[in-house]
From TrEMBL:
GO terms for molecular function: amino acid transmembrane transporter activity. InterPro entries: AA/rel_permease1. GO terms for cellular component: membrane. This is APC family permease. It is a multi-pass membrane protein. Keywords: Membrane, Transmembrane, Transmembrane helix, Transport. The keyword Glycoprotein does not apply. It is found in: Membrane. The chain crosses the membrane at residues 35-56, 62-85, 106-128, 148-165, 177-197, 217-240, 252-271, 299-324, 344-367, 379-400, 412-431, 437-454. The keyword tRNA processing does not apply. It comes from the Bacteria. Signal peptide: none annotated.
Length: 494
């Protein structure tokens, strides 16, 4: 056969799509720093350091630093496990897609329901707590300003509108805003910790003593640390819009935890120098302890409120992309898969709004203080997210086995991470039940119910077992360059 005849011979079809299943979403818009900023914003390191970070030594007692190491150590294993998935394919569904790759559609859709519930709880908490911090800042800086429920409600609505405005502008604009907010909050955290060390002195090695340490308190403290990191993996939802997703997403997951852990340990050590008769840290007066008015503390509260707003916006963006992904797969209504001119799935963003409003509505229905209800919802939602974490961790070994890349190290890390996530979920659930709270069980039931409803919707597509749930981004025909035909007689595999 002549070379001309070989060139004219039709090439075998590789069956590449003409368009991506996620066509229309913004591509290659953000870099590694933007994805890192998303993960850091969800961890809210400034608030956790100035809150639980400073309080942990008093709550746990001797061995508090072991609680911190155990808590962040478990989250590090989870981050490494999720990074194994994120380094092999690109998607917007985060844990839902991860579980689909390992266990198939049935567990994946239940995990998708869990993420809707858990992410929604965190969004509501972030918006509510941000509103409370803005209100507290006004009281600290302008004590004579009229306050009350109307002012808090007005601030809450303003926070919701601010999130919608930022997300409408596009992912690049949103991520840069988040990056700026976190940069300012970290500077403020450094100033506050420096002020404390100049007031109370530097920590000593005796703070690390284990004399009188309680293993039970240490383990409970570790579980509490884990609950502070919930939704850190949501940065994986930006994979479609990231320049180098297979590198940047795992990198952001790991390094955001290093940032948060380092600042949390630093706050732990600084807290050991505070005398027992010092004013409570929960008074939120770092520069003027015991004073009702403090402009400096008001500014800190403003920064913390903005950080909480960034938390809500980042998780909101992640949940919207999960709905977008489910819609493009045919699991949810197709209108949720629409994108606007900025490449943003804004229809899905708007669909999340009722979840953001669930906290004030739930507080009014139950007659509970809005701040207390938001915190309880976050804690109960944390149980649901920890169950999703465990499912994704246990899915990794099977996924690696299916693609013939199984090895002992990631499988062992995933197993340990899954067991740890289950332990945290059980610990939090038992604590809630002991306190007479059944909200976590209700949210778990709601997650399972949402998963069941989605399963019923897609059963008409042949059978559920044959449905391809958990799609990932793949090359399209226009992006593939086929090489020249091999020489005559040479063996070539296509």
């Amino acid at each position: 056969m002549s070379s001309r005849d070989r060139a004219a011979r039709p090439r075998p079809s590789l069956r590449f799509r003409d368009r991506s299943v996620f066509d229309g979403v913004a591509r290659r818009e953000v870099g590694s720093a933007d994805v890192l900023a998303h993960s850091v914003a969800v961890l809210v390191p400034s608030l956790t350091a100035l809150g639980t970070g400073l309080a942990l030594p008093g709550m746990v007692g001797p061995g508090f630093w072991i609680s911190t190491l155990l808590g962040f150590g478990l989250v590090w294993l989870l981050g490494s496990t999720f990074g194994e998935f994120a380094s092999r394919f690109t998607s917007a569904g985060t844990l839902y897609t991860f579980v689909a790759k390992g266990f198939g559609p049935l567990p994946a859709l239940v995990v998708g329901g869990a993420l809707m519930i858990g992410y929604g709880a965190i969004i509501g908490f972030g918006l509510t707590d941000a509103s409370g911090r803005f209100d507290a800042a006004i009281d600290a800086g302008l004590p004579d300003t009229p306050g009350g429920g109307l002012r808090v409600a007005t601030v809450f609505v303003a926070c919701v509108l601010a999130c919608l405005f930022a997300m409408r502008r596009g992912i690049q604009w949103t991520s840069r805003v988040v990056m700026a907010v976190e940069a300012v909050s970290l500077v403020v955290l450094a100033i506050v910790l420096w002020t404390w060390t100049t007031r109370y002195g530097l920590p000593s090695w005796t703070a690390l003593s284990l004399d009188g340490a309680s293993p039970t308190r240490i383990l409970l403290g570790a579980a509490g640390v884990v609950t502070l990191t919930l939704a850190f993996e949501s940065s994986a939802s930006l994979a479609l819009e990231t320049k180098r997703p297979l590198h940047d997403v795992p990198w952001a997951l790991r390094n955001s935890l290093l940032v948060a852990a380092g600042l949390f340990v630093l706050a732990n050590l600084v807290a050991t120098t505070r005398p027992a008769d010092a004013p409570s840290i929960w008074s939120w007066r770092w520069f003027a302890p015991g004073q009702a008015t403090s402009v400096a503390d008001a500014l800190v509260l403003l920064v913390l409120a903005t950080s909480l707003l960034a938390l809500a916006m980042c998780v909101w963006s992640a949940l919207a992309r999960l709905l977008f992904s489910l819609a493009r797969e045919g699991v949810l209504p197709s209108w949720l898969g629409r994108v606007d001119g900025h490449g943003v799935p804004f229809a899905a963003v708007l669909a999340v709004t009722p979840l953001a409003l669930a906290v004030p509505v739930g507080a009014m229905v139950t007659g509970t203080d809005i701040g207390a209800f938001a915190w309880q919802l976050k804690q109960s939602g944390g149980v649901v997210i920890c169950v999703a974490y465990a499912a994704a961790a246990f899915a990794l070994p099977r996924f690696l086995w299916l693609i013939d890349e199984i090895s002992w190290k990631p499988a062992l890390c995933a197993g340990a991470a899954g067991v740890g996530a289950v332990a945290v979920a059980v610990t939090q659930l038992v604590a809630e039940l002991r306190d007479g709270t059944w909200l976590a069980l209700g949210l778990l039931a709601a997650a399972a119910g949402i998963g069941q409803l989605m399963q019923r919707r897609v059963r008409s597509a042949a059978s559920l077992d044959e449905l391809y749930v958990g799609m990932h981004d793949a090359a399209v025909a226009s992006q593939v360059v086929l090489g020249p035909e091999p020489p005559h007689g040479a063996h070539a595999d296509v």
